[in-house]
Every structure is written in structure tokens, then in C-alpha cells.
Design goal:
Length: about 425
């Protein structure tokens, strides 16, 4: 069969590579893909912000299955449009994806279904928000309602800071567009965990857990990024806690969605805070995480396409997903200056030597390839992923491979997995 992957980052490279390994798959196409993805898939030009353009690609390529990577095509209704045309697609409808695309909607949903999350209030005007703020203890978390590419969450220690955030969100100064509603919520403390499940609309089946590293600097300092690395181990979540999260959060969400007739089919990403009172949902995403996917998929032993098709066909319960024991890690190399402004077009050296380190797979996030030379083409450039018997050995391989890669201004964190290493 032929599979089309929508997207062009590290997550889509990991997806395209895993899909290409499936015995069922004869061809992988990625739209738009990137320089590195071109080694595992045919890359075709596409505008991910334009549903008509994506439908044009689907009509031209005639895939047997389409897998949607990023949130934007979900938010724009690509899955709905494809389902109307009776085309096979993995991902939630626009309405189901509201769990990610509207934080107010997600919070109300969790409240309706008693899914543990931070205490919150939704405000629809600056005045209402300032009044609501009075009810909260500091520090407080202020969130834009809609998609904000990681820039819509503000943790405010001081009241003046919170008032400024509220004014900036409703006034449009903070995100470029004035918000119609915001969420104010209690600050949760603990360790974060990315708990992803596959769902066929009825059943939730967990992937191995992962942890992301959002800050640019070592020791979790400096500004937030799209993710500087991720890791996954057998020991980060014990079986009892995993079952608790599955039944009280993930399966409960899938059940709640089914009850409300907005069946969730696809990947449900539960971003959790492991608080002293137990796991609580920080956010939902309606898609695979980036860079979690680069750490998760190399640990999958069974056929990913079989699992994705089982979701589409509503027979996930019969499907067994098998995992390699041990650990994996993905370390991201970014352009100097990221997440601020950075240069592109810089030649990347050492990719061949790096790929020869046993257990290592390199996923490109922002690269171009002219037939001879890979060059940087984005803020996050590539992710070096390694699997191993335990986290230390995976880290050893990933950093050995990273040491063989270079481009001008390259930055990466040397402390990926530090919380687990310390334990
Ligand atoms: P979100 O997009 O809602 O996940 O927020 C992005 C990040 O902000 C999360 O991964 C957390 O690091 C942080 N965050 C969000 N909500 C809270 C909260 N209630 N308490 C503490 N940190 C939070
Ligand atoms: N790693 C966080 C995300 O994919 O949103």
C-alpha cells in the first residue's frame, strides 16, 4: 500500500521512516517533507496551511492511507474533508481536535467528565479576566484559548505581570491577534509526562511514555522552544500508575468524546503534570508530539501501519502493540540564535559518520538537500535518536553521534534525560 504523511518536521521523518519499514507498505510520500525525509519518502510540494492544496496532493497521489502530523491541517478540517470524500485518513475531525485547538473547550470537557486538571476559569473580556484574577492565588497560569505554537501560556509570579499578560492577550500585543477568550488556571508543580494513546474512537491503547525538554538551555533555563529533546524509558512510569492514567485520564477522555458524539480517532496526547495529588492534565494535543515521537517510534517493535489502520477501521482492541524494552532518547540540534532569529543554508557535516553509531537514527527537522549537501533550513535542524538497553547507553550513543555532526552555530542540550539520570 501507499501511505501519505502530511508535515515536514522531525516527527514526520520518524513517522515516514517507521511507516516505510512496514511490510505492508510499498511507497511513502511526504507532503511537504524536508531534505532528510527525502531519503525515506518521495517528498511533494504542499502548503500545510491550505486544505485545498493538501486535497490536491491527495487526489494526485491517491494514497491508501493518509497520516496527518501537525495540528494545523486538523484544525482546518482536513480529516473531515477527506472523510466526506471517503478517503482513508488517520487523525481526528476538526471538532474532535478542539481538545487541542481550544483550551477553554478542553477545560470544560475535563470538568464535565471529572478528568483531573488544574482549577480554572474562562474569561471572555479583559474586564472579566481582571475580576477573575482576584480569585486566584499567585503564581497563576494565563493561557490564550486558541493555537499559539507554544507561545500562548504565561506563568505569572506577580499580580502586575498577570494583569499585563491579560491586557496583552486581549489587546493583541502578545500573539499578534487579539484573543476572544483566555483561560486562567492554578499553577501545578511536579514533573511533566507525555502520555500518548492511540484511539479508534472507542479504545485507548497507550504508547510508551516520554518526557519532553521545552527550554533552550541546560537545566531547563531560557526561553521555550518547540522541544530540544525527549526520552522514553521503561522505568519512568510503573505499571500501576500507567493503568491509573489510562483508565482515569486517557480512556475516560475517549469515552467522554464518544458519549458526546465527537469520537476521537487518532493520537490523543495527554500532557500531564505528576503532582503531589496525582497526575493532572495540563493540555491535550490531538496528534503525535514533536520531539516525543522521535523517541517513541524507534522503540516500537510491531508494525506502526497495522496500529494506525486499526484506529481508522475501529478495531484497535484486537491489535497488539509490542515495544522494545529499555530506553530511547532524541537530542535536537538547533541553529544558533533559535528560538529567536537564526541563519539558514549552512552546510551540515558528519551525518554519515553519525549514522554509523549503533542504535542511532537521525531525524531531520529543518534541512534541505541539493543532491550533494545537506544544509540547515530551520530553527530546529535535526534530532539524533538512539535506543539502548537503558537510558545511559542510549544517551551515550546519541551524544557520540551528535559529536560527529557539525554546522556553524549548532546548539544542543547536553542534559537530555537529566531528571531520570539523577534518580
Ligand atoms: P500547554 O500548552 O497548556 O501544555 O502549556 C505549555 C506548558 O506550560 C506545559 O507543558 C507546562 O510546562 C506549562 N503549563 C501549562 N499549564 C500549567 C499549569 N497549570 N501549571 C504549571 N505549568 C503549566
Ligand atoms: N512536545 C510537545 C508537543 O508536541 O506539543
Amino acid at each position: 500500500m501507499k501511505v501519505l504523511v502530511i508535515g515536514g518536521g522531525g516527527r514526520e521523518h520518524a513517522l515516514s521512516a517507521a511507516i516505510g519499514r512496514s511490510a505492508r507498505v510499498s511507497e511513502v510520500v511526504c507532503a511537504p517533507g524536508n531534505g532528510g525525509i527525502a531519503a525515506v519518502a518521495k517528498c511533494v510540494r504542499a502548503d500545510q496551511k491550505d486544505i485545498d492544496d493538501l486535497l490536491r496532493v491527495v487526489a494526485a497521489e491517491k494514497p491508501d492511507l493518509t497520516v496527518v502530523g501537525p495540528e494545523l491541517p486538523l484544525a482546518l478540517g482536513l480529516v473531515d474533508a477527506m472523510q466526506q470524500r471517503e478517503l482513508r485518513v488517520f487523525g481526528p475531525t476538526r471538532e474532535a481536535a478542539l481538545l487541542e485547538t481550544s483550551k477553554a473547550h478542553a477545560k470544560r470537557f475535563m470538568q464535565r467528565h471529572t478528568i483531573p486538571t488544574a482549577a480554572y476559569a474562562v474569561s471572555e473580556s479583559q474586564r472579566e479576566a481582571l475580576e477573575t484574577l482576584e480569585m486566584f492565588h499567585l503564581p497563576v497560569v494565563i493561557k490564550a484559548d486558541g493555537l499559539a505554537a507554544g507561545k500562548g501560556v504565561l506563568i505569572c509570579e506577580q499580580k502586575a505581570e498577570a494583569e499585563k499578560a491579560i491586557a496583552g492577550l486581549f489587546g493583541g500585543q502578545l500573539l499578534g491577534e487579539a484573543q476572544q477568550s483566555i483561560v486562567i488556571e492554578e499553577l501545578l508543580t511536579g514533573e511533566e509526562l507525555s502520555f500518548l494513546v492511540l484511539s479508534d474512537g472507542k479504545h485507548a491503547v497507550p504508547l510508551v511514555p516520554a518526557q519532553d525538554h521545552k527550554r533552550i538551555g541546560e537545566g531547563d533555563t531560557g526561553p521555550n522552544t518547540g522541544g530540544m529533546g525527549a526520552y522514553s524509558t521503561d522505568t519512568m512510569l510503573d505499571a500501576q500508575m500507567r493503568e491509573w492514567i489510562l483508565s482515569h485520564i486517557a480512556q475516560k477522555t475517549v469515552d467522554g468524546m464518544a458519549e458526546e458524539e465527537t469520537h476521537f480517532k487518532g493520537v490523543l496526547y495527554c500532557g500531564l503534570m505528576m503532582t503531589a495529588k496525582g497526575p493532572m492534565v495540563l493540555e491535550y494535543n490531538a496528534r503525535f508530539g514533536d520531539p516525543e515521537t522521535q523517541a517513541i517510534l524507534p522503540r516500537m517493535e510491531s508494525d506502526v501501519v497495522e496500529a494506525l489502520e486499526a484506529c481508522v477501521d475501529g478495531r484497535l482492541q484486537e491489535t497488539e502493540i509490542r515495544w522494545k524494552p529499555g530506553a530511547s532518547v532524541c537530542v535536537v540540534a538547533a541553529s544558533g540564535g533559535y528560538p529567536g532569529s537564526y541563519m539558514t543554508g549552512l552546510p551540515i557535516a558528519g551525518l554519515g559518520e553519525a549514522a554509523r553509531v549503533p542504535g542511532v537514527e537521525i531525524f531531520h527537522a529543518g534541512t534541505s538537500f541539493d543532491g550533494e549537501q545537506y544544509r540547515t533550513a530551520g530553527g530546529r535542524v535535526l534530532g539524533v535518536t538512539a535506543t539502548g538497553a537503558d537510558l545511559q547507553s542510549a544517551l551515550g550513543s546519541a551524544y557520540e553521534a551528535m559529536g560527529r555532526i557539525s554546522f556553524e552555530g549548532m546548539v544542543f542540550r547536553r542534559d537530555i534525560g537529566h531528571r531520570a539520570v539523577k534518580k
